[in-house]
Design goal:
single chain; 134 residues; mainly alpha; 4 helices; 87% helix
């Protein structure tokens, strides 16, 4: 059973990375540069980014995909995924909005929407992968 969870986690990690890279490279790069250019690093701290990806996907697996597989519900995977993404991205963005001088509210709104869409998508794909791997 452990190999099942590892395979499922890896499938979800690939899906998350692929979807998020499309967003970051094709859509968000200019948006973030426009609104946060004054804060952006020229070179990301990759270890921090990698740890975020690993933890976020683990959270999706535990709090979204496994309960949805138990319930046998794609709708549950979408709903829990959207809620998980909204809450986790809100933790970062609303904290920044509250504490970082000149943090743009539009970044918070876009990030909350993106977090919900991304997590719902990966949660649903994880649910489908989980059914397929069984």
């Amino acid at each position: 059973m452990t190999t099942y969870y590892l395979k499922l986690y890896f499938c979800m990690l690939l899906a998350f990375f692929a979807i998020d890279m499309v967003w970051l490279v094709l859509v968000a790069r200019g948006f973030y540069q426009k609104h946060l250019g004054f804060l952006l690093r020229t070179d990301p701290v990759w270890p921090a980014a990698i740890v975020f990806y690993l933890l976020f996907v683990f959270g999706l697996l535990v709090f979204v995909v496994l309960p949805s597989l138990e319930a046998g519900s794609t709708k549950k995977a979408l709903a829990l995924g959207a809620l998980f993404g909204l809450i986790t991205y809100a933790t970062y963005d609303l904290t920044n909005l509250a504490t970082v001088k000149s943090w743009p509210w539009i970044v918070t709104v876009v990030d909350l929407l993106w977090g919900a869409i991304l997590a719902a998508s990966v949660g649903c794909l994880g649910f489908l992968a989980g059914k397929w791997l069984r």
